[in-house]
Amino acid sequence: MFYPLRACEPARAPLASFAILACDVRTGAVGLAAQSRLFAMGATAVCLWPGAGAVVVQGQVDSRPVWNALRQLGEGRSPESALAAALHGDLQADLRQVAVIDCTGRSAVHSGAACPPWSGSLVGPGFVCQGVLQGSGATLGAMATAFAQSSGDLGERLMQALEAGQCVEGARRWPRSAVLWVDHGSTGLPAIDLRVDDHLQPTDELRRLFALYRLYTAPSAPDDLLPIDGPLAYELQTLLHALGYLRAPISASYDEATGDGLARFLADEQLQRRSQSGPWIDRQVLDYLRARRLRQR
Predict the structure, then answer these.
(1) Is the CB of residue 85 less than 8 Å from the CB of residue 103?
(2) Distance (Å, rounded) from C-alpha 157 to C-alpha 147?
(3) Which own/partner contact pairs does 70-78 have at CB distance under 8 Å and 24+ positions apart?
(4) What are the distances in angstroms from CA 209 to CA 43, 206, 220, 260?
(5) CA-to-CA distance for 56 and 101, rounded, in angstroms?
(6) Do 166 and 283 lie in a common domain?
(7) Which pLDDT tens digit goes with each residue over 118-141?
(8) Which domain holds residue 252?
(9) Of 165, 195, 217, which residue sits at a domain end?
């Protein structure tokens, strides 16, 4: 399925931003993460085509020139050809940065001659980092190092790279928006499509949303399972009672009413993937329960 960029008018002046695009050639997963001073960067400056690749445009942002390039990428054209198509006839190409990557790890980059300093790209195996109006190339270097040294799924690796870029001195420049977009290819994992459009700390907020994504979509890890007995049974029953999911007396021992109440809570909160059979609870579900109780007070 093709996810088109949203048409937008060109920005009046380039705004500071940086991004990373990457793929996992083993699974066909492809994704991107970016932070920008631009409002709602995820709506206007990035695009991903599952099974084909991804693109980011920075500097003088205008999404329209890259539509055709992404369609060609989906038809099997190389990133170089897709990028050439994006820039062909673009009268403001010198003011733009564009990065393209496909699901095999091939990439192509462009930084216009009129892009403000510091602007540039850093290409590595299976990834490309790009930024405009950064203090130096240190931002991209930190992102590349973090990505290369990270482990886990592509979303987590992209998130770590984005956070590493944010931590470089002089690189933040009053960020406003951030985006994390991943298609997991053959893994069967749900796609990640998370955006922070207007926030004082957009990358931190993006991390919070990503944690919620994992809570809702990933099954429980064996190390996170806790036996419901003794003090934990008492706390769980107290929480469920306070939230209206348990009417039976608190007994400090797991019983059928406790299990039913917990199951109803998980269903209401869309956390069925974290459901357990028998007297067990996911540590993250317990933390979520505690937070829900605090918000109720």
Answers:
(1) no
(2) 6
(3) 70/2, 70/4, 70/5, 71/2, 73/49, 73/100, 73/102, 74/2, 74/49, 78/102, 78/106, 78/108
(4) 17, 5, 18, 28
(5) 9
(6) no
(7) 899 999 999 999 999 887 889 999
(8) 222-296
(9) 217
What's at 54, amino acid-wise?
A
Which residue in 259, 199, 155, 211 sits closest to 35, CA to CA? 199
The residue type found at 225 is L
Q: CA 46 from chain center: how many Å?
A: 12
Residue appearing with tokens 């001073």:
37
Task: Locate 26 and state its tokens.
Answer: 């083993």
Closest CA to 176 of 46, 33, 39: 39
- The answer to whether residues 131 and 240 belong to one domain is no
Q: Which of 233, 235, 239, 272 is nearest to 256 (CA)?
A: 233
pLDDT in tens, 246-265: 999 999 999 999 999 999 99
Q: Model's pTM, two decimal places?
A: 0.87
For 25, 99, 187, 188, the CA distances from 28, given in Å and listed in that order, are 5, 18, 8, 11
Q: List own/partner pairs for 141-150 with CB under 8 A and 24 or more apart.
A: 142/167, 142/168, 143/18, 143/20, 144/20, 147/20, 147/22, 148/124
Element (H, E) at 19: strand 17-24
